[in-house]
Design brief:
There is one protein chain. By secondary structure, the protein is α/β, with parallel strands linked by helices. The protein has helices at about 10-20, 25-45, 65-75, 90-105, 120-125, 155-165, 185-200, 250-260, 275-305, 330-345, 400-415; strands at about 80-85, 110, 140-145, 170-175, 205-210, 225-230, 245-250, 310-315, 325-330, 365-370, 380-385, 390-395. A 7-stranded mixed sheet has the order 1-7-6-5-4-2-3, sandwiched between helices. A 5-stranded antiparallel sheet has the order 8-9-12-11-10, covered by helices on one side. Helix 3 (about 65-75) runs parallel beside helix 9 (about 275-305) and helix 4 (about 90-105) packs across helix 8. The radius of gyration is 21 Å and the shape is globular. Bound molecules: pyridoxal-5'-phosphate.
Length: about 425
């Protein structure tokens, strides 16, 4: 480390201590990585992936065997009947939007079981008066069950609401987003699925699976979710996919989503893959390992900042439900120093100094540290934070642990240089 980076010797002692604390959590992560890597490898083998699948189609993309086989490989990798995995999904939000529009019809109601959804879904659902082109605009109603005082889904209230009225969709967001509530483990999602299926068997269960893929040995599709969706510039793209998204789950629902992605009557049969099949296959193949590395980086950040006297959630030794680590830094100066230090450890744009700015759609100024090969890819080491109490940084990603470790250490070094921490 000291050969390449100027890190305070006392901080390097804490680095060693933090890595010692991480020994057992890392062993747990390795077990999950091993399981998921073997699962994904066997899906490649079972579906006979060949050199011919790695090429691409043009024009309409009819009979693109590479694209169609990838959808089978992906489905098997997440324990689903079927999947749509396409570079044509422009973001996670677009993918979730296609999933919702794919299955909902005018007059239907969505019940969100996990409180207020992720910021960008507000516009899709048409909450808060944003309605142009939203589900609300098309006559689809939205309701939510607030989280309980511990930030957990309120199972009693969910039961009550489901028994009072008929809902077409129960919506679950696995990851915490920019809140401090605990992310949902697959076990917790199973409890919710069991409730929905027992109280209201016809209600479809749709899961925003962003940041959760390959963090556990199974996905929500194995415990009752009808559809899950996520972004390929997060976990399942393995840091290799440059754009795209996926929806996985029940075959007939996947077909419906295909009609929304392209158009009715045509659906998923079209869509030129151009030259991206190769990187989507490689990304999926790399994903279990890359997610493991991101989990190690998150764990290490929790341990190191714990030693420095800062609270992080989840705790470094807690069971993880996604790749996010929130570090509670307490002050605006600390938050800015943290993000600026982390940027210094990025492989791309390390010389840039991030500053807080008024980002459209946010009430507070936001600061972001990101120096990624793919713009906005948060499977690569990144941190972002709104400048408001409790001045927490949401940290995620890291293509490999050792570069992630350097980024986290440089964040601490930057705080040290600003006199925010003393050793
Ligand atoms: C990232 C994310 C999204 C949206 O993905 P974008 O690619 O940013 O549009 C939705 N939900 C959650 C929980 C996310 O983390």
């Amino acid at each position: 480390m000291q050969d390449f980076f100027n890190i305070n010797p006392s901080l390097l002692c804490l680095d060693r201590e933090a890595r010692k604390l991480c020994k057992e959590p890392f062993e747990e992560i390795e077990k999950i990585t091993m399981h998921n890597q073997h699962k994904v490898l066997s899906a490649f083998i079972n579906n006979g992936v060949s050199e011919a699948h790695l090429g691409g189609s043009t024009g309409y993309g009819y009979d693109d065997r590479g694209r169609d086989t990838l959808e089978k490989v992906f489905a098997e990798s997440v324990g689903a009947e079927d999947s749509l995995i396409r570079h044509n999904f422009v973001s996670g939000t677009h993918t979730l939007s296609v999933m919702l529009f794919g299955v909902l019809r005018p007059g239907d109601t969505v019940l969100c079981l996990t409180g207020r959804p992720y910021d960008t879904l507000i516009g899709v659902l048409g909450i808060d008066g944003h309605s142009d082109g939203s589900l609300k605009d098309f006559g689809i109603h939205y309701e939510q069950v607030e989280l309980d005082k511990n930030g957990e889904p309120d199972q009693q209230e969910i039961r009550k609401r489901l028994s009072e009225k008929s809902y077409k969709v129960a919506y679950i967001q696995r990851s915490r987003g920019y809140s401090l509530r605990p992310s949902l483990t697959v076990q917790k999602i199973k409890e919710l699925c069991d409730i929905v299926k027992s109280v209201s068997p016809n209600t479809l269960i749709l899961v925003d699976n962003c940041y959760g893929e390959f963090v556990d040995k199974i996905e929500p599709t194995s415990v009752g979710a009808d559809l899950v969706a996520g972004s390929l510039i997060k976990n399942p793209g393995g840091g290799i996919a440059r754009t795209g998204g996926y929806i996985a789950g029940k075959h007939d629902l996947i077909e419906s989503c295909g009609y929304r992605l392209t158009c009715a009557g045509v659906g998923r049969e079209v869509g030129a893959s151009l030259g991206v099949n190769r990187e989507l296959y490689m990304g999926l193949f790399a994903a279990p390992h890359t997610v493991g590395e991101a989990l190690k980086t998150a764990t290490y950040a929790g341990a190191l900042f714990g030693l420095l006297g800062f609270e992080s959630t989840p705790a470094y030794n807690a069971k993880r439900a996604d790749i996010i680590e929130s570090v509670l830094l307490g002050t605006e100066e600390a938050l800015i120093a943290f993000c600026q230090g982390m940027q210094k450890g990025a492989p791309v744009d390390s010389f840039v100094t991030p500053e807080p700015w008024d980002m459209p759609g946010y009430d507070d100024k936001v600061i972001m540290a990101a120096g990624a090969f793919t713009l906005g890819a948060s499977i690569e080491l990144s941190a972002d934070a709104p400048l408001r109490e409790p001045y927490a940084a949401w940290l995620q990603g890291g293509l490999n642990f050792h570069s992630g470790q350097a980024g986290v250490l440089l964040a601490a070094q930057s705080m040290l240089e600003k006199g925010i921490i003393k050793l």
